[in-house]
Design goal:
CATH superfamily: Spore Coat Polysaccharide Biosynthesis Protein SpsA, Chain A
CATH class: Alpha Beta
CATH architecture: Alpha-Beta Complex
Largest sheet: 9 strands, mixed
Radius of gyration: 18 Å
Shape: globular
CATH topology: Spore Coat Polysaccharide Biosynthesis Protein SpsA, Chain A
Number of helices: 10
C-alpha cells in the first residue's frame, strides 16, 4: 500500500484567527516567511506523494495562486538577491502537480475528505491537515515514516501522540494494542470524549494514509452535531474491520489552528531552522 497522492482539506473558515482570516485562508498564515500549507506539501512530496489534491472553499483562491507562477513579481525581481527567496517554492512546484475542487458547504472533515474523492480516485492516499505542523529535524518527515508503516503492513495508518489527560477532550482518541514498537492495531476511536470518559490519552493528529475504502465508510456515516460528518466515525468503522493502525511518530507537532500553537511553531522554526541557516 503506497500512496502517490495527498489530499489537503482546506475549506475551513479559520475563525480562531479572525480578523486576519476574513480575507486570507488560514492555510496561508506564514510561519516566518513560508505559509503553513507549503510545509505540508513539502512533507507529502518527501514521502513520494507528488500529486497534491486540495479541497478549497469560498475565499480560498490564494491557495491556487500560491502554487502557480506570478509572472509580474518574478519579472520584477529576476536577477536580484530577492529571487533566491522563491527557490524552495519553485522547486516544490516543479516536483508536484496540483488539482483543486471546492467543498460547497462546510459539513465537517469527513465531508471534506469525501469531496476529494474524485481527485484521489480508487487508490491509497495521504491526508494532511495543514494547520497541524510537524517537524522532525533529525530524521524522516512524519508522512515518510507513515508511508513506510503503511507499506510494511499493507494497511491504513493514522498518526497519534500521547497528550496530557486534561487535553483529551480536544482530540479524537484511540484505543488499540501495540503490535510492534510505536505501531498499534486500532480497536476503537472516539471523537473528543469528556476527560472522565476517555478510554486513553492517545490522540489522533492531522496525518493519515488511507485506503480508498474510507470513502465508503464516510458515505455510511450519519451526520452529527451541526450536521457535520466526522472523519473519526468513519475511521472507527474502518477499525472494526481490523485494517487500521495507529503510529506514534517521531518528531514535534504544533497545533497551528490555535494562537498559542501557531506562535510556538513560529518560534521553533525560527530558532531551529531559519536562525541556523
Amino acid at each position: 500500500m503506497i500512496a502517490h497522492k495527498c489530499l489537503f482539506p482546506a475549506a475551513g473558515y479559520g475563525t480562531r484567527f479572525l480578523p486576519a482570516t476574513k480575507a486570507m485562508p488560514k492555510e496561508m498564515l506564514p510561519i516566518v516567511n513560508r505559509p503553513l500549507i507549503e510545509f505540508g506539501v513539502e512533507e507529502a512530496n518527501a514521502a513520494g506523494m507528488s500529486d497534491i489534491c486540495i479541497v478549497t472553499g469560498r475565499g480560498k483562491r490564494p491557495l491556487e495562486d500560491y502554487f502557480d507562477v506570478n509572472f509580474e513579481l518574478e519579472h520584477q525581481i529576476a536577477g536580484s538577491a530577492k529571487e533566491s527567496s522563491l527557490r524552495q517554492i519553485r522547486a516544490l512546484n516543479d516536483a508536484c502537480t496540483y488539482t483543486f475542487t471546492r467543498q460547497r458547504m462546510m459539513r465537517g472533515l469527513g465531508d471534506a475528505v469525501l469531496t476529494g474523492r474524485k481527485l484521489v480516485g480508487n487508490e491509497a492516499f495521504g491526508l494532511i491537515l495543514a494547520d497541524d505542523l510537524c517537524f522532525n529535524l533529525d530524521g524522516d518527515p512524519v508522512m515518510k515514516q507513515m508511508q513506510d508503516v503503511a507499506s510494511a503492513f499493507d494497511c491504513s495508518v493514522i498518526a497519534v501522540m500521547d497528550v496530557p489527560q486534561d487535553q483529551v477532550s480536544n482530540y479524537g482518541i484511540v484505543v488499540g494494542d501495540e503490535i510492534e514498537a510505536n505501531v498499534l492495531q486500532v480497536s476503537s476511536m472516539v471523537e473528543k470524549p469528556r476527560v472522565e470518559d476517555a478510554p486513553s490519552n492517545l490522540a489522533v493528529i492531522g496525518r493519515y494514509i488511507l485506503s480508498p475504502d474510507i470513502f465508503d465508510f464516510i458515505e455510511s456515516t450519519e451526520p452529527g452535531a451541526g450536521g457535520e460528518i466526522q472523519l473519526t466515525d468513519a475511521l472507527n468503522a474502518l477499525a472494526q474491520t481490523g485494517k487500521l493502525l495507529a503510529y506514534r511518530f517521531a518528531g514535534r507537532r504544533f497545533d497551528c489552528g490555535s494562537v498559542d500553537g501557531y506562535v510556538a511553531a513560529t518560534n521553533y522554526y525560527y530558532r531551529n531552522v531559519v536562525h541556523t541557516c
